[in-house]
Amino acid sequence: MIKARSIVKDYNGFHALDGASFERDDTGIFGIIGHNGAGKTTLLKIMSGLIAPTSGELEIGGIDVIKNPDALKERLGYLPEESRLYETMNVKGYLSFFGEIYGLSPDKIKERSDTLLDRLNLDAGNKKLGELSKGMKRKVAIARSLIHDPSFLVYDEPTSGLDPMTSRYISEFLMSMKKENKKTILLSAHNLYQVEEVCDQIMILQRGRIVALGSMDELRDEYGSISYSVEFMADDVKEFEECMDHYDRVGDVYLGTVTDIESLNMLTERITSSGGRVKKIESHYPSLEDMLVQIGD
Fold first, then answer.
1. Which domains are present in the chain?
2. pLDDT computed for residue 296 by the predictor
């Protein structure tokens, strides 16, 4: 259970967060998005107990994070935007070092390390961390965040700057953890497609305030509606062009757009009755990018 009440973070008169309040009471992935400067990283650091808010209340899993941030750390796995590693260590030595910090036995450290490296498909041999690629370093940082099997994860831009294949692998890894239904994951990312794909609920921040919060279906209901594109062939489009919001022509094929089911039905009926042929109909939902554009900065 996460309970945040009127969280404010003030930096010399600038409100990085300005009264953020929300609750979350289940496991899964919770996305936090917004334009640069919206307050995402500030909120994640407060949720991790790394910085204290200027005012407000925050409870995570029954822990008062503001009064007792150290109590959260046993349950917390934190991944900052930059993978700052001890680059003279090798991977297993690095994970062992952090496992010891969390009080794990040598056998438990080996078990957890072997499992995580296998699941992350990470085989670095005996290379030092400074010799690894950016993608491999990110996987090591993720493994470090999970070495003590925390129940609460805070990930800031987990795939930032990575190649598409590594980004995809990390997204699939996050979804696999979600399916296990054991962890609550807070995720901030500029890759909005990734957020749409993996998150159960999404918060949109704007200038330190929460302006939207809900599932993708709920956000679509609030900030957009479905549209339909119809690919068709016809001799004379003028007979039904008033049914469409917009259309284009490429060769002998037209592509028309409508924004409601009644217009779609009317359009397809008129195309057919005039001797034309409908080739394909596709539905389109507003994306998170569309919503951010609509909300503005």
1. 2-222 (3.40.50.300), 225-296 (3.30.70.980)
2. 66
